[in-house]
Structure formats: C-alpha cells, structure tokens
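Trying the structure run again after the queue cleared.
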Amino acid sequence: MSSEPFEYAVIRVVPRVERGEAMNAGVILYSQLHRYLGCRIYLNEERLLALDPTVDMTAVTAALAAIDEACQSGRPTGQPPGARFRWLTATRSTMVQPGPVHTGLTADPAAELQHLFDLLVR
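Done. Tokens:
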C-alpha cells in the first residue's frame, strides 16, 4: 500500500466562546484515495469542568456524538465521505468546533488516525 494524501482536523470543545479556551476532544481524518473517513472522540470531563465548571456537559456530549454519527454512518447529511468531511470541518462558533484542516501522507489511514488521536487528544 502506498502513501497517499490525507486531511485531518482536531475537534475542540470551547466551553465559553468569549474566553477562547479550548480542549481537544477528537480527530477527524479523511483520505480520498484510500476512500476512508474516520474519527475518534474522547471527552475528558474532569479537564473540561476545570475550564468551566458550569459547562453544559449534556450538550457537549450530544454534539460530539453527532459528529461521530455523521462521520461513521453518513447521517444526517447522506453525502459521500469527502462531502461529510467538509461539512464536519466547516467553521462554526459553537461549543464544539473543528480546528483548521491539516494534511499529510499515509499508507494506513486508520493507524494514522489512532496516532493523531493519541498525540493530540489523549
């Protein structure tokens, strides 16, 4: 298997948008040539509560679950993986936001996703 381009974005939780403090909670990775779209999500609730003890944990958990669902199943957009990646990484001003999209090369997108998740989230 050859190394092919991929794109990824970190999913951040910003409990109080006006303060700009963020915590990484996931990674989304897309490789067109490998026909791969995947994400890993992990919410460190203790750390998030340290940023904002009044954060709506239910809303954050629901937003992260919606990202995971859209990535894994295609719902609610019903679009192919590339379109879903673009939709998931579109800029938003909410508590759960995608970071900038970055690129790289990989022969194994699933292993790359796990590596980025361990490096940037865990």
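The radius of gyration is 14 Å. Worth checking whether this holds up in the mutant runs.
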